Amino acid sequence: MIRVLIADDQAMVRQGFGALLAAQPDLVVVGDAANGADAVTAARRLDPDVVLMDVRMPVLDGLEATRRLVGDRPEGGERPRVLILTTFDLDDYVYEALRAGASGFLLKDAPAADLVHAVRVVAGGEALLAPSVTRRLIAEFAARPSRNRPRPTALSALTPRETEVLRLIARGLSNGEIAENLVVAEQTVKTHVGRILAKLGLRDRAQAVVLAYETGLVAAGE
């Protein structure tokens, strides 16, 4: 079962999302919170797999709450994965949410099926971005001068094949698409992805995308 915590300052939203997710056979809603501070406290107590996090909340906003949750390393456990939900698809929110450690970003007006799918994808360790959000993210990096993107020495630890896989991840390709592109088995791609994340100290593909663009390894339009 995938354990979910819902953080949103609107009671109707929490109840609606809760009812939708609780109706799924593989999902269980373990709690909810009306602000970011309560979300952090509840997550530490309830140990959810995924936190649905609103951006604009009182006391502590969703971005800072995400930073605190992702920074946590509970003894014997894993940090929860954060799926940002918002009505605002503004560039700053997208970029800062991913920099804060969010594993996904979905607009609240997305179909119910997309929300359920997003929770499962994020819980499984993948990254998820709405198409419109991905375009905005790439535009954000494209607007930045490349001279401000020094490559970290960590990238030198990657093999040529791993560097190639990282570029394809940044383009938004799935493991299956990368395997087809490189003419290798999908399991081989999964192995490469795991090694890339481990060598670069990244949690998931969302952070890999940010790093690839931020360091200039990939440029918008490639």
Automatic annotation (TrEMBL):
InterPro entries: CheY-like_superfamily, NreC/VraR/RcsB-like_REC, Sig_transdc_resp-reg_C-effctor, Sig_transdc_resp-reg_receiver, Tscrpt_reg_LuxR_C, WalR-like
Taxonomy, superkingdom: Bacteria
Modification sites for 4-aspartylphosphate: D54
Domain Response regulatory, first and last residues per copy: 3-123
The HTH luxR-type domain, residue ranges: 151-216
Keywords: DNA-binding, Phosphoprotein, Transcription, Transcription regulation
Pfam families per the UniProt record, alphabetical: GerE, Response_reg
SMART domains named in the record: HTH_LUXR, REC
Listed PANTHER family: TRANSCRIPTIONAL REGULATORY PROTEIN NARL-RELATED, TWO-COMPONENT RESPONSE REGULATOR
Protein known as: Response regulator transcription factor
